[in-house]
Design goal:
With 247 residues, the chain is α/β, with parallel strands linked by helices. Helix content is 57%, strand content 9%. The strands form 3 sheets. Strands 1-7-4-5 form a 4-stranded mixed sheet. The longest helix is centred in the last third of the chain and has 114 residues. It is rod-shaped.
Length: 247
């Protein structure tokens, strides 16, 4: 058994890849034997590593034995619940191992190149037992194509998730920019309204103040003129009285 790090893979993608290879994902009991605290030696890796297993949909088990923030043989679902990254494909430390049944070894080239044995009774050739080299070659090519298709699908799913994430971030930036623009526009509108209200008030206020100052000046001036006229009249009256008495 061997494991492969396929970054940013979803559980469905790895499960489908294993099915196309003619196998199924290992169970957690296959990876961590009952009573053991470490995974079997052939799957141990260093660092944080989550291996897709067949116990449940979107189930993962920790196979990192050192430099990992989680203890080995830890079930993600049992301890944290099903991971969101297991369906979106956003984690780099996703690992893959497939339990493919072992088939009988194909016949050697020596066997296939030998002449077909003949039947003692009829003398007709007896067909060779087992698949031919051509069938084995076809099966190998089909398996390689299925594996490539699974990897292509996983890459397409990752690209789609990345694109959706980028579009979401772009929408968020546009909403933020639109919000700032609306706020600035409202502030400018309020400032314009305040100017439209305050300018007439200041204009009429300044006119009223000017009228008040002018009125006060006129009033004071009229008081001075009246006092001057009164004083002049008094002096003239005294002069007339003096001349009258002298005659």
């Amino acid at each position: 058994m061997s494991v492969t790090n396929i970054p940013k893979s979803t559980w469905d993608a790895l499960n489908n890849k294993c099915k196309t290879e003619g196998g199924k994902l290992f169970s957690s009991a296959d990876i961590c034997k009952p009573g053991e605290t470490l995974p079997i030696s052939s799957v141990r890796v260093s660092g944080d590593a989550w291996l897709a297993v067949s116990d449940n949909t979107n189930e993962w088990i920790q196979i990192g034995v050192d430099k990992s923030p989680h203890p080995p043989c830890l079930s993600h679902t049992q301890n944290f619940g099903p991971p969101q990254w297991g369906m979106s494909g956003t984690l780099d430390s996703t690992y893959y191992a497939c339990n493919i049944p072992v088939t009988a070894a194909p016949p050697t080239s020596q066997t296939t190149t030998q002449s077909a044995p003949t039947s003692p009774a009829s003398g007709t050739p007896v067909p060779p037992i087992g698949p031919s080299q051509e069938d084995i070659q076809k099966e190998r090519l089909a398996r390689e194509k299925a594996e490539k298709d699974a990897l292509d699908r996983a890459k397409a799913e990752k690209d789609a998730a990345d694109k959706a994430k980028a579009e979401k971030e772009a929408d968020k930036k546009r909403e933020t920019t639109r919000g700032w623009g609306l706020t600035i526009g409202i502030l400018l509108l309020i400032s314009l309204i305040c100017c439209c209200i305050m300018v007439p008030i200041l204009y009429f206020s300044s006119g009223l103040i000017s009228d008040m100052i002018f009125g006060a000046a006129v009033y004071e001036g009229s008081k001075i003129v009246r006092k001057g006229i009164s004083d002049t009249a008094g002096v003239l009256n005294k002069g007339l009285e003096y001349l009258t008495k002298k005659k």
